[in-house]
Amino acid sequence: MDHTKDMNRTGECPALLSLPEIVNSTALIPKYEFDLGSCLFKSMLPSDSTVKVLVCIFVLLTILSLAVNGCTLLGLGRSEDLSWEPRFALLKNLILSDLMLTITQGPTVTYCLVQRRTLPYGPWCLTQFFVDSVCIFCTLFTITCMALERYLYVCQAIYYLSILTSQRLCFIMGLTWLLSLCITVVIMILLQQSHASSLVGQPIAGLLCEPDTVESVLGFPRASAIFRKLVGIIVTFLCILSYSFSYLRMYQEARNAVQPFQQVNRRAGNTILFYCSMLLLQLMPVLLKIISDALWEVISPLTAPSGWKTAGTLHIMLLVMLQVPPCINPLIYGLHNKEVRQALPNLLRWRKDCLNLNVEEGSLRTQETGRE
């Protein structure tokens, strides 16, 4: 299909997109001969060159995330020295949620960009929304636990091993997933109260089923929106609070240590600054979502003439920012550590040994067959 012709088949799209009812009602659709999904897409991304750039960005970020997370996870799994350490067990938990997030988000957004139309509301939309919500909450809980684990390691070193036993560590990791599932299930139950079978197949106002786009299709259910925003703000605040407390206490411990020329103190300060900067980068999608929620509450973008452009820009920015944390998490918490960097070459050597072993087994079989 010629996407340019499909997007410009009618000149009524911009006028229709200013109506709030077009998002949460199917009543107007039969009256006009136009592709609603293409019109909604065109309202957010009118430039074809921008679409091509976004396709390249999402493909590259998806491949990079899968490669970096996959290699780090395999390296940690093959290393017997690292698998038992609590911080690397938590890192594997973080990588697992990042992989699930990448698999559900990257291909979905890329497909919509290639098709030049928004994502339709339906089973995949709800599945993707459920998985992404679980993974995002699990990521926030895991980052919180990783900060507290570092605090115990540095400031409570005597009691570290007695506090973080293997059983407690497994319980903590299971609890992060359980809490994330419970929060998401409550959100889904509240959303399903506004669900109607007639809405299935209707294009949403976005390339991904994130909270605003799903709620717009369902008529903005207040109970779900209030619960989601309240829980999101509380979890984000607890993550920032625990991170700030943990690394501030570690910095204070480093400053109290008497070292010549204060070299260790400066190094500790640089380390704290690095991790705090990375936390801000990781939380950027969540903070952008909080700002977006505030804008939807205050100015109601759907009712303003330029509201679609504002909401569409925020939506695209959110999609791009959501792809960044899965790419940098292994670099921050994994490859930044010397132990993990040493484990990755061992993974490559293990792979090479496996290939050599297969070649030797094949040659032995050939020799035995020749003798027979």
TrEMBL record:
Signal peptide: none annotated. CDD domains: 7tm_classA_rhodopsin-like. Pfam families: 7tm_1. PROSITE patterns: G_PROTEIN_RECEP_F1_1, G_PROTEIN_RECEP_F1_2. GO terms for molecular function: G protein-coupled receptor activity; odorant binding; olfactory receptor activity. Keywords: G-protein coupled receptor, Membrane, Receptor, Transducer, Transmembrane, Transmembrane helix. Residues 68-333 form the G-protein coupled receptors family 1 profile domain. The keyword Membrane applies. The keyword Coiled coil does not apply. Its main location: membrane. The chain crosses the membrane at residues 51-76, 126-148, 169-191, 230-251, 272-292, 312-332. It is found in: Membrane. It comes from the Eukaryota. Coiled coil: none annotated. GO terms for cellular component: membrane. Belongs to the G-protein coupled receptor 1 family. This is Olfactory receptor 6C3. It comes from Chanos chanos. The gene is LOC115806904.
